[in-house]
Amino acid sequence: MTWTPSTFVRGPETTEMGNVSRRVRDVSDTIQYLDPDAAPFTVMLMKASSRAAMNSKFEWIEKQLPSKWDAINNAGGYSAPYYTTPDTVFAVHNPIFSVGDVVLVPRTGEKMLVSSINTGASPTTITVVRDVTGVMTGDTGAAGSGTAGVLVNNDDLLVIGTSFAEGSSSPQEKTWNETYPYNYTQIYKDAFGVSDTEERSELYTGKDRPRLRLERGIEHKINLERSALFGDRYLNNANPANVYRYTGGLTYFLQDNMVNAGGILTEPTMESWLQGVFAHVGATDTRVLFASPLVISVLDMIAVARLHLVPRDETFGITVRQWVTSHGVLNVIKHRLLETSPTGYNTTPAGYGGYAFAVDPTKVLFRYMNGRNTRLETDIQLPDEDGWKDQYLTEAGWQISLSPVHGILSGVTG
Description:
Elements: H1 40-48, E1 50-53, E2 57-59, E3 69-71, E4 82-83, E5 89-91, E6 101-105, E7 110-118, E8 125-129, E9 151-152, E10 156-162, E11 182-184, E12 186-195, H2 196-199, H3 208-230, E13 234-236, E14 244-246, H4 250-253, E15 258-263, H5 267-277, E16 286-291, H6 293-302, E17 307-310, E18 320-324, E19 329-334, E20 356-359, E21 364-369, E22 375-377, E23 387-400, E24 407-412
Parallel strand pairs: 1-21, 15-24, 16-19
Antiparallel strand pairs: 2-11, 3-10, 4-9, 5-8, 6-7, 6-10, 7-8, 12-23, 13-14, 16-20, 17-18, 18-19, 20-24, 21-23, 22-23
Helix pairs in contact: 1-3
């Protein structure tokens, strides 16, 4: 190495003349993080609605009251395009009817009384007494005394109750079956560590371990959040020694009330979507709306005078604004993970920047495998490894019940 002689300088040294390598740098002892908490869905459920799962496959029970709506089905081999006044045997789409049902034809106002059902026919047929209340023409007081109107194919039918004669016997029993949706727990791992040399080095921000625990903890929570939003339920057991389970999220389980705005989100479109989201009484009249920044901006313009801030001590520290609509209450949360791809590689980037999820939190549970809720495992390095290694581990999934009480809004561009 060649020796370099010192340079002679006249006068006092200034900050620009001295060797800057000798000067102690003024470096903050803290690190500023961009989006340190971008997982509001996971945060809310882990704190408010969680339960241990006893198995990697967990199930729940759902039961929905049978629909009372059906329609005339004239596509089953009937030659005429309609049923005339004397007809009393009708083909229908679904076997929802029972003897004694009063059936309303909304188009005409006619009420019919079901006297028998043939579920063995294809399609199912029902035999009825026509115009039992005499609304079509004059009522003489006898059943079916009115003159019934013409019924056309796909005329809507609505069961509005039952009617039995005085002194009659009890009708046949009936019930409806429940369903057993299920999901899987997924194993999430985020490891971190440093060499022993790095561990013993002096750093402006202190030791690496506390910093890395914070950083990887944030990343671990965001990994849980993204699978809660976009995950698909799947079991890969092709190799019994290496089984992979994937948990289904909102985009997997929510198959009702899906509206694509197809561009500019208008107030009528929003109102129509909310009408479906709040249609069922099996849920509360409150939903949490997890909305992309773009959708939040649109809502600010649509409902500028109707959004009110909710105290943070009531929302687990998450910023929530409340919108009271005629259909129900929306607790609106900006979700930063609902974004369009920022890579710039695609001229028409894909993603979720135009999305919003309406969720009834009382119908969603964070299900962690018993004893395997999020935990920090320390010093898991191999015995001969020259350093330390920790990891965050979670085995969990999502129980998302009753799709009809939730909803997905997509396709918003402004």
